[in-house]
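user: can you give me the structure for this one chain? tokens are fine.
assistant: on it. calling the predictor now.
[tool input]
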Amino acid sequence: MSLYQASDVAVSMFDKILVLNDGHIAYYGPATSAKAYFESLGFYCSPRISVSDFLASMSGDPTGRKPRDDLQRPVPVQPADFEARFRESSFYQQTVSEAAKPPQGAASGDSSASAYALPLYRQVYECTVRHYQDFLTDRAAWIAEAGGTIVQALLLGTLFRNQRAVTEGLYTRASALFFCVLIMGLQASAEFGNTFVQRPILLKQKALRFYRPAAYALGQILADVPWKFIFILYSLPIYWMIGFQRTAGSFFTWLVCLYMGLMALSVMFRAIAVFTNSINRAILPVGLLLNVLIIYTGFYITPPGMKFWLSWIRYLDPMYYTFESIALNEIGSGSYACSLHDIVPRGELYNEKSFQACAVSGSVAGQLNLSGRLYLMVEYGFKDFHLWRNVAINAAFFVFFSIVVTIGMERFRHSSEQMATIFYRKLPSWANTSPTRPADTEEPQYVTDSKELRPSSDSEMAPISCLNNTQNVFAWHELSLELDDRRHLLHQVSGWLQPGKMTALMGMSGAGKTTLLDTLAQRIQIGRISGGLYLNGQTLPASMGRRTGFVHQNDIHLASSTVREALQLSARLRRSEAVPWKEKMHHVEFLIRLLEIGDIAEAIIGVPGAGLNLEQRKRVSIGVELAAKPDIVLFLDEPTSGLDGNSALSIVQLMRRLSDAGQTILCTIHQPSAQMIEQFDNLLLLVPGGKTVYFGPLGSQCQTIIDYFARYTRCCRETENPADYLLEVSAEPDVDWFQTWQQSPEYASTQKQLQHFLQSQEGNALFSSGSDRAYAASYLEQIRVVTQRAFANYWRDSDYVLGKIQLNVWMGLMNGLTFLQLSNDLTDSRGRMFSIFVGVITGPVLSLQIEPRFILLRDQFLSRENESRVYHWSVFTVTALLVEIPFTLLGGLIYWVLWYYMVGYFTISTRAGYAFLMYELYSLFVASIAQLTAALFPTVLAAQVATGFVWLVINTFNGPLSPPPLTPRGWRWFYNISPLFYFIEGIGTNAMHSLQIACRDTELTTFHVPTGETCASYAAEFFASGSSTGYLANPDATEECHYCAYADGDQYVEQYAMSYSQRGNNVGIFIGFILFNYTMAVLATYLIFIFKWRKQRRT
């Protein structure tokens, strides 16, 4: 076990201690002998320094060690010196001899013992049981998934309800079957996210030899076997509401086909996650694969219409096999009466069925009933004997990818993101190299754009005494915080903070330290507050938030910013506009020197483990707050948490220097060492219930407070840490320390002094006409600075930028090559429409990329910058929306160029320009709907779960999948508010207008004519009617007539209730939807996150 800042009591619990110094062993041996060993090397341990701090100093900075005066031999300095001295000691010899002995209880010569306690089959069994337990206990996840599936099933069930056995329902019946497969694919694609969530647990338990990763993989797959079947059952409303075949055989065949497809797809997407390092990098291959699988399902582009160079993809597509099987099961076994509008010719004069035909694929001349089997064979190329063959193929996919997942999990390694690495921003070649970094490393350009702003030597630094010049006194009186259940988190707490004084806030866990700190900083969002907060005896100004600094315990920073940029943003937005820009930058450079972070000033802050270490992050946090020159108080919440003793002392000593320079400081601290507690001037000590047991000076070596407690309890021993002593005695149940404090003379003295501070001191308020503004910078300046940062954040995330570009490149190429240079026959006319629809299905994947970016910026604002009044909440929303636009438009341009001309659409400027405009608007629509979805949910996971449902609804009502004329009346109104219907109507009619359709021989419908008639004369009445479409390929024939269902593109799009005349209106309406989404994203952010926070603050 590794320990930071442990007490002597905790150290005494261990048998042995290992002390490492830069990878070299400084000591390994009994815990009771460690202190004496280093003292024997010549080091001095002060009586009140804990053993852990003393030992930690042996592995840290040499300046933290104090040699004894009576040295006979030089003390070790370098890590290698410590190791050499240890190897000379008896402890080393004892360690070597113990290591040579076999472990107790080990069988001699047994080298084949397994590294795992259980055999593999038991590991698989236990992992399976655990996965079941995970499913059952994580109710929120599976309830959300089940609820979403049921809602989707009800939506589709009502949309396609009661399908009749007529030919006009063949298309919608196939569309409904396609949606069954689509929902299955979307469910399966969620596996990649689940795999990344579970990966840290797997890696940890793998390292501890709980089980083999292969056992985990097999257990997960076995647990999926019944669980996935349950989720298929949630789709039952689709089957029964639509009116599929009402036989037991057909129903269970449908169920088995979907189930096996879901199992195959689940392990396929899981395999991608297993072989990908991060979830951000997995989105691209998962999105590409899902879209390719959907395209080659067999519905968007039927197998007869597939280009031979890509048609092989369907043989690797479980969704294709599933769709073919359920189509054969549902459609192939039926017979369908020809719908009225499909009969040719039709009218009052045509009463002989023998001289009519059904204008549907697979029809026979003279027959008005259509075999479902023939229809599927001609239209889709599906064959009866493929049904169960496809189930077997999906089963083989399931077995294959299960093996792949098992092998992949065995190869799991910790991501490189866990390595402690600092990344630096690249600099232009003219920039100076830092003396602390290699000369061949590029140093970044200073954003100040002025070399004179950075001091060239330490002697040129402004003295620290100029850090602040204020006489503001911050005080609070009888402060209480009560919850709704009458519990008190704070109870009648009083105190004050003065410039140049550093106050510690201590107490045992649960005493209310952080609660009091948040309350004083006006960041508390729960309960009812009573009492008063005062600045120089007056109520707090509106500028309180930006004029105080608050250093969070968990060091919240935007990971993509550099250290210098973080400080500069705080200085530019939180200091008054009256302060010259150059002076703000001078102050930032001064702080960089003061905080000793010059060597990392251009380092990317990153995240813990992949960026700055804990101490560096803490210094940056302090620097960000000092850059605002807080003239009221600097709050710090557990600034030494997670640091070793040397680093913690370094942070506290820095705070001491700041306090000596005039900064007012209040700091919560937990179990500080004697050296740290002595750095403070005053102490506010709390006990559970938020009650004060002492507030006042510590005194030299904490003697004042020790004397106070010694009057009522035992004295502090000379070798005891005063902080440990205070925490121990304040926890004694026999003494009511709150009452004791209220009855003490020290309390009376503090109350008298507090009343003095509470008197109005107008001369010290120092409020100018502009200093009391909630925000220091103007709105336009806030927009400019925050937008610059947001662009830098996007640009430095290469995974995001390249992922967006690569997705558009690959999907544009896939779409273009799938529908390459379409002709003007009937099959390719369908392809022209569905190629547009293929462009639409990139939306969900792009949304999954965009949502985390929006939520990242929002979390940064809410957790840090909102409370500090860095910038207005609307600035965040506007910049988050604006920064996405250039990258979105670039992606749309790349996709359109690769797709549009490859397909063979009209190249004249008016047509191509309109298509380009509409697709760029579609790209903006994707970004707007993604950001609106992100604005509605608190987490990335919740937003991405909702994304699938949102896009399913949007795509369902776009026109081609469920044409409005074939849609139940109860749903037709939805097309009026369906944004993608207007998009596809505009770009679709633009692509089809004036296109002359020429059917291939296989696409023609054949009917016979009576003796003595030609095709043209016999069908004249039919074509004279206003409801007819198409043309005769052989009008002069006298026996067999060949009829093409559509003569041009305008007739073709009429089946979707679309018109070329609406092309201009659709642009304006679609822009309106985009603006609506952006407006709602701003409004949702305010109502859900800002209004709620303000309401809680007022309460």
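assistant: here you go. The chain has five domains: 8-100, 120-279+385-413, 340-374+998-1045, 451-765, 779-997+1052-1098. Residues 107-112, 430-463, 762-770, 1095-1099 have pLDDT under 50 and may be disordered.
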